[in-house]
Amino acid sequence: MQAIMQNEELISLFRDNFPFWDELSQIEKETFINSSQYISFPKGTNIHNGNECTGIILIRKGSLRLYILSDEGKEITLYRLFPGEMCMLSASCVLNNITFDVFVDAEENSECIVVGGCAYAALAERNTAAKIFALETALSRFSDVMWVMQQILFMSMDKRLAIFLLDEVSKTGGDTVHLTHEQIAKYMGSAREVVTRMLKYFSSEGIVELSRGGIKLTDIKRLRSLAI
Amino acid sequence: MQAIMQNEELISLFRDNFPFWDELSQIEKETFINSSQYISFPKGTNIHNGNECTGIILIRKGSLRLYILSDEGKEITLYRLFPGEMCMLSASCVLNNITFDVFVDAEENSECIVVGGCAYAALAERNTAAKIFALETALSRFSDVMWVMQQILFMSMDKRLAIFLLDEVSKTGGDTVHLTHEQIAKYMGSAREVVTRMLKYFSSEGIVELSRGGIKLTDIKRLRSLAI
Q1: Residue A151: its pLDDT value, please?
Q2: Cβ of A98 and B72 within 8 Å?
């Protein structure tokens, strides 16, 4: 662990993020700390590349993007991680069952603590709370991923919402749609929750900007490519 | 538990399938058995419907198909389950983190043991081995699902393989492709593992029949629809 971060600060961070921290022995805590690295990633850095074991990434500042990649270089964003969140899918030696490749990039200048996967795996062998925590953290993203997949696979909501938003601004002029999510859902014959979630996804992709005043279309080109 | 199955047979089945069985107290074992049902599902029955808690389904005979369903009724098969395997994603009260809807149908006349989700969840609260088992079983399917999704999403392998197989029989005549998976992979610029896995998927969907002699195209219509 580099001296850039005080040990007390790190311990407090681990206590906040790992519910089993207080159960660990002094030696286990020290091993955990020694296997951890404080790393700054400039915007655009690829942090995790496929199925290697990078370790568990705790985000302190900035944001990371998880995605899958086709042979032809096509990317699909699965989700993003923000300060206080952690990436478990990058720790393949902790999760034997995960055999698919995900990629993780820093989307902004980011500061992270990376906990060594092997050290965590050894701990999880002895400590069931650590094992359960790793499994639950990984599994909790299964639903997020399925949601993105379903929306895209069934070619419905991303495309349909893109078409609706483009139609709407071409009718009203300007670049902002002044309708509530509820109203959009009604027009589209969908549910408000689905519209809200897809708008958040668009917003995280930089395609729209959400505010009280409405939905501002910030990347018309991208929206058009979705609407095709 | 119905009298149709002897208790000894059931206990031996549970011992084989749940690694924590011998750790349970007599009362816990009895609760587990009493919360279980032996059910025969005729071919075509819908067994699990979305996000309700059907319980953990242990397959004894037949086969089950897991799939997701769009609003418009489009289905995507995620994977199939055969005798000796179990379905954990149908037990949403055991897995709080799973919020997406999967559907399970009997593809053949099937015989299953359904372990009550609430009883299992209560056990998993006290017994960490039972909890870890449920999480690992669910997570182990995450990779299968991602594989199917990636193949379809990136519009590559299912479509490309369908086109290749159709081209091949139209060149050579007949309904069978006499090439090894290795050769097909070479022609397609792909990896043998990918070709083998996709052929197995086609085979499980009844689109092809795999044998030593080659790949018999058994559902040309379906193959054509994939190739479009």
Answers
A1: 67
A2: no
Residue of B70 and A123 predicted with greater confidence = A123
Task: Summarize pLDDT for B48-85 with one digit per residue, the tens.
Answer: 998 688 999 999 999 998 988 876 676 777 888 999 99
Residue B152 dihedral angles phi and psi, to the nearest 5°? -80, -45
Higher pLDDT, B106 or B142: B106
Is residue B150 a part of any domain in this protein?
A: no
Question: Which of residues B141, B175, B206 is at a domain's end?
Answer: B141
What are B110's strand-pairing partners?
B41
Query: How many separate domains does chain B show?
Result: 2
Print the domain residue range for A167: 155-227
- Phi first, then psi: what are they for B37, rounded to 5°? -130, 140
Check whether residue A122 and residue A171 sit in a common domain. no
Residues B130 and B164 in one domain: no
Query: Looking at the partner chain, which of B68, B128, B143 has a beta carbon nearest the beta carbon of A99?
Result: B143
In the DSSP assignment, the letter for residue B4 is: T
User: How far is A64 from B116, CA to CA, in rounded Å?
Assistant: 39
Task: Please tell me the distance in Å from A157's CA to the nearest CA on chain B.
Answer: 10
- Residues B184, B168: Cα–Cα separation, whole Å: 10
Lowest mean pLDDT among A52-56, A168-172, A183-187, B16-20: A183-187
Residue B128 has its nearest CB partner, among A132, A140, A143, at A132
What integer pLDDT is reported at residue A193 of this predicted model?
77
d(CA B157, CA B34): 46
Distance (Å, whole) CA A126 – CA A129 = 9
- Is the pLDDT confidence value at A5 over 90? no
Report which secondary-structure segment, H or E, holds B49.
strand B46-50
| CATH number of A223's domain | 1.10.10.10
Mean pLDDT of chain B: 87
pLDDT of residue B104: 95
Sheet containing B46-50: which strands, arranged edge to edge? Answer: B46-50, B102-106, B64-69, B75-81
Shared domain check, B122 and B24: yes
Question: Which residue does chain B place closest to A70, by CA atoms?
Answer: B154
Could you give the CA distance from residue B197 to residue A75 in angstroms, rounded to a whole number?
Answer: 22
Does residue B28 carry a pLDDT above 90? yes
Specify if A1 maps to a domain: no
**CA distance readout (Å), B194 to B152, B190, B205, B225:** 13, 7, 17, 21
Q: How far does CA A169 lie from the centroid of its chain?
A: 30
Provide the pLDDT confidence category of residue B170 given band limits of 50, 70 and 90.
Answer: confident
Q: Residue A28 half-sphere exposure, CB side, CA atoms within 13 Å?
A: 16
- List of chain A residues whose C-beta atoms are within 8 Å of the C-beta of residue B77: none
